[in-house]
Specification:
InterPro entries: Glutathione-S-Trfase_C_sf, Glutathione_S-Trfase_N, Thioredoxin-like_sf
Shape: globular
Largest sheet: 10 strands, mixed
GO molecular function: transferase activity
Helix content: 40-55%
Keywords: Transferase
Radius of gyration: 20 Å
Distance between the termini: 45 Å
Number of domains: 2
Pfam family, one: GST_N_3
Structural class: alpha/beta
Oligomer: single chain
Number of helices: 10
Number of strands: 10
Order of helices and strands: EHEHEEHHHHHHHEHEEEEE
Protein name: Putative glutathione S-transferase-like protein
Amino acid sequence: MSDLILHHYGSSPFAEKTRLMMGLKGLAWRSVTVPMMLPKPDVVALTGGYRRTPFLQVGADIYCDTALIAEVLEQRQPAPSLYPEGVGGQARLLAQWADTDLFWTALPHAMQPDGIKAIFAGAPPEVIKAFAADRRAMSEGTPRISGPDASAALTHYLAWLSDLLQDGRPWLLGAQPSIADLSVYHPLWFVSRAGAMADILAPHEGLKTWMSRVAALGHGERAGKLDGEEAIAVARAGTPAAASVQPGLGFTAGERVSVTPADYARDAVTGVLVGLDTGRVTLARDDERAGRVHVHFPRIGYMLKKQETGA
């Protein structure tokens, strides 16, 4: 079985979510640190243009989006489950809310001036300026709420989450941790690192205790580090897993298609359609550095389109 290779960087909230998945499941993985902002030539060689962090590599298969990464890890090691029996649907729904509404409320709250000072403490002004420009480009055309509006909304969200824990349950959905805990945790983890902006968490002792419990899951076993070139060599030496296109979904195997995130960082990835069902789409790509790779995306949150062909 091929090694799990996580492409990430330390301060990425969604990467923290994925590292905690590894911890909950007790998995070993190898680490590739990717740049926080463009250019990302090694990333593009593997993903074809998808620029979000993190992504998971298993040989010559590249898995994008933490929702899909969670499913891949669940298939690889079913226990302990990210979707415990009896609450699997609730876990998925709460995770979806956390990765969208909660995240896009926590982020602008944390990235107000006092938060930026803490998050980028010691960084040269030009780095902060470049990061801000990079993130503006990622969110171009996507409406975002202001810092004060985000703070007001987050106050309510924290109260709702605290209410879930009032009965003394150790985890958001009961006796076992789930993907819901990891998804709710990572935006609040980012807020907790934002200096004075973390004060919004102070009234919620039960929630902070729960956060400590989630953090204690750890990050699994870091089995070594690779650089980008070494990870590309792993892909080049591998063979992608077989995939198939389910009939009746409006697409045919072998068509040239594009996949684009529906919300932000809307960089299209193009390739040949080799896999499709209601949960996942898989494109085959040939890269001069990485060779033949399969890039996988979830169907939720991504737009699949046929490529126009000239006459």
